[in-house]
Amino acid sequence: MADSADTPPQRKIIHIDMDAFFASVEQRDDPTLRGRPVAVGGSRARGVVAAASYEARAFGVRSAMPSVTALRRCPDLVFVPPRFEAYRAVSAQIRAIFEDYTDLVEPLSLDEAYLDVTEDRHHLGSARAIAEQIRARIKAETGLTASAGVSYNKFIAKLASDQNKPDGLCVISPRHGAAFVASLPVKRFHGVGPVTAARMAALGIESGADLRERPLAFLQAHFGSHADYLYGAARGLDHRPVRSHRPTKSVGAERTFETDLSAPADLHAALDRVGEAAWVRIDRHQARGRTVTLKLRFSDFRTITRARSLAHGVFDRETFFASGLTLLDAQLPVPLGVRLIGLTLSGIVDAPTDDEQPSLPL
Fold it and tell me: How many whole angstroms separate alpha carbon 147 and alpha carbon 203?
């Protein structure tokens, strides 16, 4: 039997998620917006909601929703244009707070990150105490609120941070991890999107408890390479470490339409909306890349991808949109109706400084 000194300590992971980050920054900086339903994004016909305040969410307004849909749900919705420079500045403040407690910080975006606080740098006594102090400092130094999940792995910490939002804290110990996961709907699991959740529902899998009842062979038959992750997640297991330099491979968005599209004008409008949603995520991740990929799924479920790489990279919204439009126009007229469009940026590179920004004519 191995000596206990050889056994690594139980990880202590915190997942911090800012509450309605973009919208909260806008409400903080403009007192006339406080208490009102606010959407960050464009109010024009093809605009997309990048973020929504909790007042707007009460009406069913969500990020990536078309602006016209958001206005139908909430006629009093106030749109404000995004200010990514302001969001990045606040994100840098928050990151500095994190790094006072640990070097093991894995940002997922401007407004959320994992922290491994297994080493108690300030001798606060527990991961809960560390999370409470971090949240208090965020509030004091930025005027914003954050929710935190504390647990023994990344999977459960992320679930926990969403449990008591907004401005909440949830701690899940190793003793309660499996039961906590079993009690949740699988659609809340990180990595289980709407398509996978629908496939699970068709198989009678609605909750973590349902998922845990399925043997690994069953999950492999239905979910392929995703099966091992799902099998462990259903049991509260996740051995992924917090990676302080986690590379972003690609960022994008895709949308499935209620009715198939075939007219060029409809496809252009749909691509515009998908591109807006994708660019919000690209900016949120501070990602810049070399390759734009268009994904089309036709009415017969046949899927194609077409990519375009630029020698100097894609560093601005206009180049990203123009590249996507070029890829789409090359497929027109489409042979069948289109049920899904996706647009992704990959080949991620460091963004140049302002002096180095290249001119990227198409």
Answer: 33
Cβ atoms 101, 122 nearer than 8 A: yes
* Residues labelled catalytic: 112
Q: Which of 146, 184, 153, 200 is nearest to 18 (CA)?
A: 146
pLDDT digits (tens, 9 = 90+) for 291-318: 999 999 998 888 899 999 987 788 888 9
Burial 278-305 (b: 16+ CB within 10 A, else e): bbbbbbbbbbbbbbbbbbbbbeeeeeee
**Per-residue pLDDT tens over the stretch 37-70:** 999 987 666 678 989 999 999 999 998 888 889 9
- pLDDT higher than 90, residue 77: yes
Position 313 scores a pLDDT of: 83
Return the closest-CA partner of residue 37 out of 17, 19, 51: 51
Question: What would the 3-class secondary structure string for 267-298 be?
Answer: HHHHHHHHHHHHHHHHHHCCCEEEEEEEEEEE
User: For the whole prediction, is pTM greater than 0.90?
Assistant: no
